Amino acid sequence: MVLTRCVFPLLLLVLPCLAAHSHTRDLAEGLVETRSSIPLQNHDQRYALWSGIGLLKNAIGQTCNAVLLDTRNRQNKATGPAYVVTSGHCVYFSYGSARINQGISANITFNYFHDTQAQHRTYRIKTAHWSSMVGTDLALLEVDSSLAALITEGVMPLKLATHQSAGERDVINVSSPSGFRQKGLRMSACKETVTHSFVEHPGVFPSALKNRCNDLQYGSSGSPMLDRQSNEITSIVSKVAAVIQKDILNNCQNVSACEAAKFNYSYPANDLHRCFVDGVFLNNTVGCQLKAIDIVLEEPWKLNPYVHMRQGENGHNVRPTWNIQFSIQEPFYRFKAVRHVNDCRLANDYHSATTSTDGYVNHAIGPALGAHVLCIIGVQTRNEVLTPALLQNAYTHSVFLTDPAPVPRINLNYSVKWDAPHNGFSHHYFYVDASDVATCPDYDDDRYTLANSGMSYPASQLPVTVCSFARNAAGQPSAVRTDVIEWAKSLSPLQGTEAASSRR
C-alpha cells in the first residue's frame, strides 16, 4: 500500500496531511461489481502488494492459485518457512478426505503479472502439510524457501482476516483465471456474504461464503478474496459460477438451486492462524488439531439431497431414514443430526461412540420439514473429548425433507388434476407413458412438463401411467409419484378416483 508523504514546515499544512493519512484507500480503485475484471500491470510496482498471489501448477500442468501467508512474528520478523494457502481440491480431490504431510509435485510462480514476465519468480512446493475436503476446501503448502528469502526477492505475503464477517463485506478477487489472452493476475470487485444453507448446492461445505465477482473461471480456485480496505484474506475461492453451463441455468426448474449456481463459493481460513507457532506450522496445538480423515461412503451416487415423507397405510406420514453406510479409519465414530450445519461444530448432542467396523447411520430424518444435516466425526477412544479444534474435522451431509408427493385427482371422465396448493407444493409436473412397462424416472428427466391445467384421456387410450411430482415455492421437489389410469367397466359416483386409478 502506498502512503501519502507529507512535508509541512507550517502548522497550516498539518490538517490537510492528516486528512490524507486518515482517508482509507480503496484497493479496487472504484471498480464496481457489474464491471468485468481488469488485468493488473505492475511495471511501476503499483500492485506489488499482490506479488504473493501466485500461479500454482502441478506435474501434469493443471493450475490453481495460491497466496503467500504473512506468518511474521510480533516484531515483524520472518523466522520460519514460507507457506501458501490454496483450495484443498487443488491438491487432493476427494470428498470426505483430508491429508496430512502429503508429498506433492508442484511449483508456484509469484510476481505473476502479464507485463513483467522477466520478474516472475518460480519456486518448488516442498510438501502439502494439510489438504481437506471435509467441512471445508482448503490446503496449506510449504514452499521450498524461507519467508524472509521471498520477502527479500520482493514477494509480499498477505495476512489472514482476524475474524469472519457475519454480514456483508466489500471484497476483491485477485486471481489468474483461464480464458484470457493476457496471462497474469486480474482484479474484480463484489460483495461477499454468508451462505446460510448449503443444501441447494451439492459439494458446498459449512461456513461457505458466496460472491458474484465477475470473470472467475477455471484456474481461479485457490485465489484469495480480499477485504477491499484492509487487504486481508477473507476466504479462498473453491467453486465458481462460470463452470455451470448457461443452458442448464436457463432450463433449470429448481428456483433455489438455479440461484445457488450463479454464485462463486469460498471458504474462510481465519482459524489457520492458530496453527502457527513462531512462524512454523504445527497441527497439534491446543487450538489446531487438523487430522487425516478418510470417510468413504458406500454408493455415494445414490445419496439424494432431497428426501420425502411418504404416506403409510393408516394415512400417517412415514419418515425417511439416513441410510448411510461408510468406512472411517478411526476405531470409533460419533454422530448427530442437526438443523443448522454450524451446529456440527458444537460438542453437545453427539451420540455415544460406536465401533467403526461397520459404519451405518439409519436414524429417521425429521419430523420437521426443511434442511437436516448429519454430522459424523471419528474418535480414537470412546471417551475422547470433542474439543472445538477436533470438531473442525466433522464430516457433514445435508438433505431437504419435504411432504409426500401430491395425489392427483382422477375424475370419472379420466381427467387428471392436482389440488393447488397441497402441503406447500404449488407447481406440479407430469408426463404420460402409454407403454406396458412404464417406469417413472427421477424429477430431473426432461420429459416432465408443468401442469398448467388438468389433462384428460379417452378410454380408448387406457391404461396409461401418469408420472408426477411437485415443487414448493423454494423449488424443492417432492418424491416422484406413479399412478396408473385404468379403464373401469362400471363406475358409481361414489367410487370416483380410486376405482379408476392404482398406484405402483
Automatic annotation (TrEMBL):
<keyword id="KW-0732">Signal</keyword>
<dbReference type="InterPro" id="IPR009003">
    <property type="entry name" value="Peptidase_S1_PA"/>
</dbReference>
<feature type="signal peptide">
    <location>
        <begin position="1"/>
        <end position="19"/>
    </location>
</feature>
<protein>
    <recommendedName>
        <fullName>Serine protease</fullName>
    </recommendedName>
</protein>
<dbReference type="Pfam" id="PF13365">
    <property type="entry name" value="Trypsin_2"/>
</dbReference>
<dbReference type="InterPro" id="IPR043504">
    <property type="entry name" value="Peptidase_S1_PA_chymotrypsin"/>
</dbReference>
